[in-house]
Design goal:
Shape: globular
Mean pLDDT: 88
Radius of gyration: 18 Å
Strand content: 35-45%
Helix content: 10-25%
Number of helices: 2
Number of domains: 2
Low-confidence stretches: none
Structural class: alpha+beta
Order of helices and strands: EEEEEEEEEEEHEHE
Largest sheet: 6 strands, antiparallel
């Protein structure tokens, strides 16, 4: 059993107390969280941006990890920005942007993580566009889960 796991929020949500009068935690889509195991309860907890604690998963009776539905395990090894290919696209705050635009945003001091764009993501979007085109549906925005690598910005000059 791992004492610490890293997860990514698949979607954002707010957690309130029973009568909805107090915000207990706020999780943003795409945020990376380190969660620590509380051995007594065999549950993993992390903290939001304000330091409020929330549950991300637990160990079942067999000792297997069971994550809450809004989270996925995340390999936080990442990729250095300098290792990205020229012309590579980047996901930032739900938008797909160029590598050059990502660098601009980084230099402006964003606190939101950036990820590489996966082929599965591109395929999913293209399939949606094709299906809508065949059915005569005209949409401006398409979404899909992107499981790209976290981009690590080393010192940039």
């Amino acid at each position: 059993m791992q004492k610490e796991i890293t997860v990514r929020a698949k979607m954002g949500f707010e957690l309130f107390n029973h009568d909805h009068t107090k915000l207990l935690a706020e999780v943003h889509e795409g945020d990376i969280h380190t969660a620590n195991l509380y051995e007594e309860s065999e549950e993993y907890f992390s903290k939001d941006r304000e330091g409020r604690e929330f549950k991300v998963g637990e160990l079942d009776m067999a000792g297997n990890l069971k994550l809450e539905e809004d989270f996925e395990l995340f390999n936080c090894n990442g990729i250095k920005f300098s290792e990205l290919r020229e012309g590579q696209y980047v996901e930032h705050d739900g938008e797909i942007i160029t590598k050059d635009k990502a660098l601009e945003i980084f230099k402006l001091g964003t606190d939101k993580p950036m990820y590489t764009v996966t082929q599965d993501f591109i395929s999913s979007i293209l399939k949606q566009v094709y299906k809508d085109g065949v059915n005569g549906v005209d949409k401006e925005v398409y979404t899909a889960l992107n499981h790209g690598q976290l981009i690590i910005f080393e010192e940039i000059k």
